[in-house]
Fold this sequence. Notes:
InterPro entries: Mn/Fe_SOD, Mn/Fe_SOD_BS, Mn/Fe_SOD_C, Mn/Fe_SOD_N, Mn/Fe_SOD_N_sf, SOD_C_sf, TAT_signal. Residues 127-228 form the Manganese/iron superoxide dismutase C-terminal domain. This protein is mainly alpha-helical. The protein has helices spanning 6-11, 15-22, 52-74, 78-81, 85-90, 97-116, 129-139, 142-155, 202-205, 209-216, 222-234, and strands at 160-166, 172-178, 190-195. A hairpin with a 5-residue loop joins strand 1 (160-166) and strand 2 (172-178). Helix 3 runs antiparallel to helix 6 (97-116) and helix 8 (142-155) runs antiparallel to helix 10. The longest helix is centred in the N-terminal third of the chain and has 23 residues, at 52-74. The chain is globular and about 50 Å long.
Amino acid sequence: MIQPSRRAVLAGLPALAAVALSLPARAQAPSGPHSLPPLPYAPNANEPHIDAQTMEIHHGRHHQAYVTALNNALKDHGQLAALPVDQLLAKLNEVPESIRTTIRNNAGGHANHSMFWPVMGGRGGTPSGELGQAITRDLGGFDKMKTDFNAAGAGRFGSGWVFVTVARDGKLALTTRPNQDTPLMDGERVLFGNDVWEHAYYLKYQNRRPDYLNAWWNVVNWDRVAERYAAAKAGTLGI
Length: 239
């Protein structure tokens, strides 16, 4: 039996599935300062809202690709390689122009995803305590925050992220960024955020980004977000 060519197989798949298959399977990062953090839960922990296959591809291929490219770009730049990723992003203007775009895209992707995995794996619900009070004070309450957050995510043209940022005094704000940009580039800290690149949801939701945004709240780990809020107020929140 004649086997179909790889090109023919890819041509018959949705665009996102084809992209996923074209990525290296769990490519290993070269020696470097940055590494792929493990998922803090099993890939199927967010089902049925986010499927295990999406989690495996998103984490093991997409995030790993950002780490690999970042380490490659930094291998001849020892001083930059020594910086934590949040400091590297805050100093983008000091990065040589020849590698600045590569660092922007891949350090941003690494930072965004390193934040993203731990704030999931929960059971949703409603935040309480100081975090809940801050959401009411700064974002108009939990229901309004969800509505505004979902609208911002759905309205982000192309690929990008929607974030809630947190200042040292605990003040919250809602913002979006294109591609793998992050508020860390502007000296701000991220409390939590959601990835609206198609690779985050396409296998399950296809082009229904609003459905994905609505479903995502069912897997938020509010205990972890509350820990990030406390760390931000203490000045110890990293990425």
